[in-house]
Amino acid sequence: MKPSPLLTLAALIAATSVAVAHGNEDHATPRKFDPAQVEVTDFGQEGNPQRVTRTIQVDMADTMRFTPASLTVKRGETVRFVVRNGGQVLHEMVLGTRQALAEHAALMRRFPGMEHADANMAHVKPGTAGEIVWQFTQAGEFQFACLLPGHFEAGMVGQLVVK
Q1: pTM of the prediction?
Q2: pLDDT, tens digit, for every residue of 8-56?
Q3: Domains, the chain, ranges and CATH?
């Protein structure tokens, strides 16, 4: 049975809208902090912008690298990450455990149009900047990564140590 041209066209339109949905989101705008919505994770929680103790600039490039590639913070510290995309393509910075980031990257490969805007991520269009305000409540070794399809696999991963 041959699919009808109308059905084929509808499928192409649906696939195209899913493929670009992620790219059209604007997650670079700072989130409004709501203490009632803070989710505690294995690597910390959304930080109160009024309690930021340090600001760290992180640059993202089309070479699929972060600068700096490794960061050290103190347990209990609330950090404002200013994430700049100096490249020509969309990038994001997502904080997390090694396992959670790998799982999320696999999910992004399966569903590239997936929408997400959590407190531990900044989704940044080329030539712009975004922010993450995070309180590091747990000591340990964590990571930050760009989970857009192909970026994580190309090595766009940084190391994060909380002492």
Answers
A1: 0.79
A2: 333 333 333 333 334 444 444 456 888 778 889 888 999 999 999 999 9
A3: 5-162 (2.60.40.420)
